[in-house]
């Protein structure tokens, strides 16, 4: 089979899988709703609860304020990609 034929087969399969995924989701987005108020309670529904321990220990006074910050990362190689992930896990407002 020619290289172009394999690429077309793969592209067609990707489109089929995307359609199946959309049908499985019921046409809705997979994004989680934004948590309006960060709770210090440790629960599975609060992805930032482990970080709220810093507030309870008195290390951070207003942890919720981190959601208002925007951070620009120049280069997402070995260090930048880890930095972007950690900032996202911490609940930073926006990463550019």
From TrEMBL:
Residues 7-34 form a coiled coil. Gene3D superfamilies: NAD(P)-binding Rossmann-like Domain (3.40.50.720). Keywords: Coiled coil. GO terms for molecular function: ubiquitin-like modifier activating enzyme activity. It comes from Pavo cristatus. InterPro entries: ThiF_NAD_FAD-bd, Ubiquitin-activating_enz. This is THIF-type NAD/FAD binding fold domain-containing protein. It comes from the Eukaryota. Residues 48-95 form the THIF-type NAD/FAD binding fold domain. The keyword Coiled coil applies. The lineage of its organism: Eukaryota, Metazoa, Chordata, Craniata, Vertebrata. The keyword Ligase does not apply.
